[in-house]
Structures are given as structure tokens and as C-alpha cells.
Automatic annotation (TrEMBL):
Belongs to the ABC transporter superfamily. The keyword Membrane does not apply. Residues 2-227 form the ABC transporter domain. This is ABC-2 type transport system ATP-binding protein. InterPro entries: AAA+_ATPase, ABC_transporter-like_ATP-bd, ABC_transporter-like_CS, P-loop_NTPase. Keywords: ATP-binding, Nucleotide-binding, Transport. Pfam families: ABC_tran. The keyword Nucleotide-binding applies. Transmembrane segments: none annotated.
Length: 307
């Protein structure tokens, strides 16, 4: 389990992480999301003892990283694709890591196989593609068979097969009881990988909830109602405080209400209903709504139209 307690970090006058408190549970993949500069990497670096908190604590299984006896047996992480020395061979890099953490040398072959790098084990790291370096980083993270995994943007540089592979790896590790904490910018990827989300903006917690709840809370969820008595139902819904619009096709679009609310009001009026359906927001929409007020960098109109 990972626990952040009022975690705070400043770089000069810039507050990168601001009083962040959250518990990341075992047995789940928890997605760590936030706009550019929100403080995700800094948080992960503090968890791994690579940056020191100014106040608060970042704990893995109840301890700061520096207090872990053989860290690679407790936590495996990929926060940087610069791994090992370019002149070193992949297998000897892993062997060095294993030795320094009292991990049996036999694990090197096991993890190289797990990440699909058996053939490349004798190659020098400097000859590796970005995708191969990502896989080697993940091999290092898995070496001590840890119960906590921390990945910062792990799909960067991976091809389509690699993306599916890492998704299945994270799901399998969580299903086996591991705590998997992963940052990503790809909402579609998070939607198919994560169970739970921690969203931050400007270093502060914005949401700590299941993906289903994050989407359910979105103001962009809407209900479509088709009825011959649209005007009457629209008036009743407005009275009940539900924002309602009449669409070009003559149906009503209702927000801020559940299917039960809308069905109940229509039933109370004895109206005939031809369609009553819920249109859920995507995770991307719900996320954009949550983080719109904490963007550090807003693209100009020209950049938006160019992309
Ligand atoms: N070593 C550093 N020195 C000075 N400022 C830093 C340093 N590391 C991070 N920052 C600043 O702290 C803030 C948080 O950065 P961080 O990299 O943690 O965000 P992030 O959420 O990981 O962003 P991204 O999604 O763009 O990778 C940013 O404003 C960044 O410029």
C-alpha cells in the first residue's frame, strides 16, 4: 500500500506538490492523472526517495523509501527511460541490481522472459530502442517480485502490442494483490487499465475515486427523452431544477438528473414515453471538466487548430 500524508514539495518559489494526502490500495490499478506540471512525477520521485519532501510523508508499506531494507523487493518502479549505462549489457545491468538487493541471480532470466527481452539480454543498452528500454526498465521493476509497482508514463515509446502487453501486466499484478500506481496522459488507456483514479492539479488533490464514479459525477452525463408531450415534461423538469433543452429532433436533453428522476416525473404526469436513455460522458470529458481550472499551460487557438 502507498500512503501520501500532507505531502508538500517546493522548487524555489514554485510549489510542485501541495498538501497531498491519499491512500493507494493494494489489489487495484490506480491511475495518477493531472495536467502537465501538476506534480505527478515529483510525487512519484518522492515515493522513490529521489526527491525529498519539504513536509509530510510518502510511505510505501508504512515506511519512507530510504527505510526499506531491500527496496527492490518491496517496490518496483519505472520513472525514467534512461536506464543503466549505454555500454552495459541488459542482463548484466539486471544482475547488478539483483546482487545489490539480495535477489537470486535466477530472477534475471525470469524477468527478461516476462518482458520479452530474452534474445536482447546480451545486447548493450545503448543499442536499445525506446520501447526496449521501457521493457528493460519494467524488467528491473519486476526483479524483486515486489508487491508495489510505480510506473510514470509506462506506455511512452511502446508500440501497439507493447501497450496491450503492459496493460495486461498491470492488470495481472493487481489481480494477484499488488498495489499498482501508474501515471498517464492517455485517458482511453486509463479507462481500459485502471480501477481507480487519483487526479491532481497544481499539486493538489482533485479527485480520488473509482473510474465509474468519476464518470457518474460528470455534468456532461445526459438523459435523452422522447415524448409526444415534450413541452409539458420540459416544464415539469425545469420546476424540479433539472436543466433541460429541446433538441432539433424534438427530444429533450436533461442533465443533473438520474433516469429514475426523469422517469418518475414523467410517470407522475401520466405521460407517454417513447425513449428514455442515458448518455454517459467519456473519461476524457469527465477528466477535462475536473481539471479545467487547474491547467498550468493552456494552448493558444492556433496550437489547438494545428493539432
Ligand atoms: N527539479 C526541478 N526544479 C525546478 N522545478 C521543478 C523540478 N521538477 C519539477 N519542477 C516543477 O514542478 C512542477 C511539477 O512538475 P512535475 O514534473 O512533477 O509535473 P507532472 O505532473 O509530472 O508533469 P508532466 O505531466 O508534464 O510530466 C512543474 O511546475 C515543474 O516545472
Amino acid at each position: 500500500m502507498i500512503v501520501l500524508e500532507d505531502l508538500t514539495k517546493d522548487f524555489g518559489r514554485k510549489r510542485a506538490v501541495d498538501g497531498l494526502s491519499v491512500a493507494i490500495e493494494a489489489g487495484k490499478v490506480t491511475g495518477f492523472l493531472g495536467p502537465n506540471g501538476a506534480g505527478k512525477t515529483t510525487t512519484m520521485r518522492m515515493l522513490l526517495g529521489l526527491d525529498t519532501p519539504d513536509s509530510g510523508a510518502a510511505l510505501i508499506n508504512g515506511k519512507p523509501y530510504a527505510a526499506l531494507h531491500t527496496p527492490l523487493r518491496t517496490v518496483g518502479a519505472v520513472v525514467d527511460s534512461r536506464i543503466g549505462h549505454p555500454g552495459q549489457r541488459a542482463a548484466s545491468h539486471l544482475l547488478g541490481l539483483a546482487r545489490s538487493n539480495s535477489i537470486p541471480a535466477s530472477r534475471v532470466g525470469t524477468v527478461l522472459e516476462e518482458v520479452g527481452l530474452v534474445e536482447a539480454g546480451h545486447q548493450r543498452i545503448g543499442t536499445f530502442s525506446l520501447g526496449m528500454r521501457q521493457r528493460l526498465g519494467i524488467a528491473g521493476a519486476l526483479l524483486g517480485d515486489p508487491q508495489v509497482l510505480i510506473f510514470d508514463e509506462p506506455v511512452n515509446g511502446l508500440d501497439a502490442d507493447g501497450v496491450v502487453w503492459i496493460r495486461e501486466l498491470m492488470r495481472a499484478k493487481a489481480a494477484a494483490g499488488a498495489t499498482v500506481f501508474v501515471s498517464s496522459h492517455l485517458m482511453s488507456e486509463m479507462q481500459s487499465t485502471a480501477d481507480h483514479l487519483v487526479v491532481i492539479g497544481r499539486g493538489r488533490l482533485i479527485a480520488d475515486d473509482s473510474i465509474d464514479n468519476v464518470i457518474a459525477e460528470s455534468a456532461l452525463n445526459s438523459i435523452t427523452v422522447a415524448t409526444p408531450d415534450a413541452a409539458l415534461l420540459a416544464e415539469a423538469l425545469s420546476w424540479a431544477g433539472c436543466p433541460v433543452t429541446l433538441t432539433d429532433s424534438g427530444t429533450l436533453r436533461v442533465t443533473g438528473a438520474s433516469l429514475e428522476d426523469v422517469g418518475g416525473i414523467a410517470h407522475g404526469l401520466g405521460l407517454r414515453i417513447n425513449e428514455l436513455s442515458l448518455r454517459k460522458a467519456s473519461l476524457e470529458q469527465a477528466y477535462a471538466e475536473l481539471t479545467s481550472s487547474s491547467l498550468e499551460y493552456v494552448p493558444s487557438e492556433n496550437e489547438r487548430t494545428a493539432s
